[in-house]
Amino acid sequence: MFNKQENSSGEDAVNSSSNNPARATTPSGGQSEASVISAGLKIVGNLQSEADVVISGTVEGDINSRSLTVSEGANVTGTIESTSVEVRGKVDGQIHASSVKVARSGCVNGDIVYETLSIDEGAVVEGQLRRNQGSLHGHKSKISTLTPVDGDRKKKELGGEVKAG
Amino acid sequence: MKANQLVMRIPLLGIGGTTESAQSAPHKQRTSFIQRTLTVTGTITAPELELIIEGVVKGVVTARRILISQTGRIIGDLRANTVDVAGEVHGRIEAMAVALRSSARVDATIYHHRILIESGAIVKGLQPWRPDGYMERRKAEW
Asked: Shortest CB distance from A2 goes to which of B12, B41, B114?
């Protein structure tokens, strides 16, 4: 019975492809849609996305995305690096994002490095909160402006060496 | 005419699932999307879900049903009741029913009970047939 189908003409196979679920579900301009990691789905490994990610399932690994939503009941173990993060579920690990929102149902075990932060009443946050002034990518240049201090230290160190010598 | 109807029906039968979806599909038709902007490195486990992959996955994917769209790219293993490929797969496929659409580019060993290959698909690799209870035995090892 199965062989019959294989031996049928190519035209029939093309006709049958109108029922192809993979094609029917492929959106023409899916760029704006978020990737959904739904409940019951578990990823062990890293996620990298240039767009939005919504997690309702379990992720054990690092996440790198534009915006990230950790829904209620979701579980993330790993470092998150995003432009904006909204936590309604559980996160074990560091969060690096310019905008961080921890909702009432949210739970974060780990440090949060943010520029704007909101924590709703009832949310659980265990970890250090550190404000990253300026953009996350711009902080290196700010460190470089502190060179005079380094210069002083170097002078002292040099002086020490001279004395020791 | 009759033959044509048969051909029209079989992909649905095979890919829509016959025995397993009759049991599991009606109560939950949950679907998860891996969009084209997303790259996953690691294992994806979703034994109860339908998974539509439009992005890139490097690793092992386990689901009830896996659909790889034209933009989808898998480097690794696919394990599911049904696997429907319109994109690219490098590695290994283990499924009861496998459909390779005309846009598919597959370089994989395909363990299957039923397979459909549309004309135009680029397929490289072995396609060993497996008997009916094969998946049940394999599932125990996953």
From this structure: B114
